[in-house]
Amino acid sequence: DVLFDLEDSSQWETVLHNGISQQQLTRTVQRRQENRIIGTTTSDMEEVIPRKFLFLRSWVSSIVVSEKDLEARFPGGRKVTRYRKAKLERFSPTVTKDGLVSRLTTYKDLDCTEVTEVKEWYKNRSDGLEERNFNKLENSTAEHFKPGRAFALLCKLSAERTT
Asked: Which residue intervals define the domain Dynein regulatory complex subunit 7 MORN in the entry (predicted)?
């Protein structure tokens, strides 16, 4: 018993303020075309085609984000995400002085007590460091730099010389 004729204002409530139905809009356009054929100009008609949709003004104030908050990216400049046997820390580039952007710590157990590896990613460093890997099981560190670094890899060999 429900009639789904949305144009029937006696059955349905208007949702949009000052909105007109499709029938009213069609009639207005037809009248305008008839007046154009007859020769009546729009200045004589004083009739303006109403808008189909006229939305109410929003009651929510506009969102304002300061430049400092935008640069911070995360509340407090840091965000920690925990995974199964891992923890990912992301930092805003302006918060850390050494250019640390993110750190991934992997653990050996589910309780996250024994660290197996720590990977750190950097940006905007003067020495060109991009990534550093600490392997706690092998007790080794690997550093990856940008190509074209100002100084080459320095290596000190401590071998015994026999005479």
From this structure: 75-153
The C-alpha atoms of residue 147 and residue 128 are separated, in whole angstroms, by: 8
CB 114 within 8 A of CB 107: yes
Q: Which of 18, 6, 23, 12 is nearest to 50 (CA)?
A: 18
Q: How far apart are the first and last CA of the chain?
A: 110
Reduced to 3 states, what is the DSSP secondary structure of residue 94?
A: coil
Sign of the alpha-carbon torsion through 25, 26, 27, 30: positive
Strand duo 100-107 + 115-122: pairing: antiparallel
Q: What is the number of helices (H) and of strands (E) in the chain?
A: 3, 6
Pull the structure tokens for residue 23.
């029938």
| pLDDT category of residue 101 using cuts at 50, 70 and 90 | very high
d(CA 86, CA 104): 7
Give 3-52 pLDDT, tens digit per residue: 777 667 677 666 655 566 677 778 878 888 888 888 765 554 455 555 55
